[in-house]
Amino acid sequence: MPESSQELTRACREAFEKLCSEVSLGLEPLGFRRSKPTLWTRSHEQTVDVLSFFREGTTYGAPTSASVGTRVNLAIRVLNDDFEGLALNGPGTNDFIGRRPPGYHLSFNARSFSQYDRCRDDLVRFVREQGLPWFSEYADSVALVERGDSPLSPEARERLREALAGNSEPAAIAASKKLLGLRKVEADG
Predict the structure, then answer these.
(1) How far apart are the C-alpha atoms of 32 and 158, rounded to whole Å?
(2) How many structural domains comprise the chain?
(3) Phi, psi (5° rounding) for residue 174?
């Protein structure tokens, strides 16, 4: 009997959640904690490194097949930034020639779990090999403000400059923490 659309949707959603939970275990030694269902964060004094995962292979939220693809985007969020959304200002897995970074397999079958282990391991490997060097390149807040190739918008740079001068806005910091799910992570400690 053919699988219903609802059954396929449930299978893909549960498989993606399992993937995210298991990837979390591999990201923790790298300093990232899951702060929202598809966000992992690593906090610094003035900024937060962000990993954002997206499930591919859907249309209007419903899967188009049992194949679950995952896209990862990197971002640096200035805590003092008052922008209401998350700017995905860093590279992602789709920024590579051929749509995927060479050597990374970032999809699996939600029914058979074929390629699941490889996908899970390659997501962590992508963060380790591509993400960590990128975050390290922009780890210094002063350089993040001054470098011509900074990924920050002019507004975010100015907000970081203000924070470095001791002029942070508590409301902006609280809003950034809420946006990133950091209040829960801090409470869980």
Answers:
(1) 26
(2) 1
(3) -60, -40
Q: What is the pLDDT of residues 22-35, one digit of tens each?
A: 999 999 999 999 99
Find the domain containing 34 and state its range: 5-127+136-188
- Burial code (b: 16+ CB inside 10 Å, e: under 16) for 9-39 equals bebbbebbeebbebbeebbeebebbbbbebb
Give the other-Cβ count within 10 Å of 64's Cβ: 11
pLDDT in tens, 43-93: 999 999 999 999 887 666 677 888 999 999 999 999 999 999 999 999 998
Q: pTM of this prediction?
A: 0.90
Token pair, residue 22, equals 């298991």
Residues in the chain: 189
3-state secondary structure the chain: CCCCHHHHHHHHHHHHHHHHHHHHHHHHHHCCEEEECCEEEEECCCEEEEEEEEEECEECCEECCCEEEEEEEEEEEECCCCCCCCCCCCCEHHHCCCCCCCCCCCEEECCCCCCHHHHHHHHHHHHHHHHHHHHHHCCCHHHHHHCCCCCCCHHHHHHHHHHHCCCCCHHHHHHHHHHHCHHHHHHHC
